[in-house]
Amino acid sequence: PPLIFVIGLQDYERSCLISILERWGTPTNLLPQEVTNESGQGKDRSVLYARGGIFLITSRILIVDLLTHVASPKDIDGILVAHAEKISNESTEAFILRIYRTQKRFASDMINTTLSSGAVQQESSIIQSYKYGFVKAFSD
């Protein structure tokens, strides 16, 4: 399965999302997995990521995993950013996306294929903020 990270959710939003998916009858093995500071060390998370799936993760944990190579951008199929209208160029989320896109492109260039530069999905209720200099992390 693909490896997808969801960042920017509050604790109650993560719980609510999983609860709704369970009520809809989503099979347990297809539910997103929460990654918190109680999810073990980097080596434990590395094993989780290798299996693929959707991970609801804090930005703090994901940036550490990217910088320590526990999670490799070349293996990540997408990052969904909740509340993207609230992040700034200096935020951890923007830094994550810059690392992801830069390394994804570098990996693509190295193997000389037409791999995508990585899906970055912006989730926001304020569409206007996308039109007016939102965050450079979302643009090429």
What is the strand and helix layout of this fold?
Blueprint: E1 3-7, H1 11-23, E2 33-35, H2 42-51, E3 53-57, H3 59-67, E4 78-81, H4 92-110, E5 119-122, H5 128-131
Parallel strand pairs: 1-3, 1-4, 2-3, 4-5
Structure description:
The structure is a single chain. The protein is α/β, with parallel strands linked by helices and 140 residues long. Helices cover 39% and strands 15% of the residues. The chain contains 5 helices and 5 strands, in the order E-H-E-H-E-H-E-H-E-H. It has a 5-stranded parallel beta sheet. Helix 3 (59-67) runs parallel beside helix 4 (92-110). It starts with a strand and ends in a 9-residue tail after the last helix. The model is unreliable at 110-117 and 124-135 (pLDDT under 50).
Question: Could you give a short description of this structure?
Answer:
The protein is an alpha/beta fold and 140 residues long. It has helices at residues 11-23, 42-51, 59-67, 92-110, 128-131, and strands at 3-7, 33-35, 53-57, 78-81, 119-122.
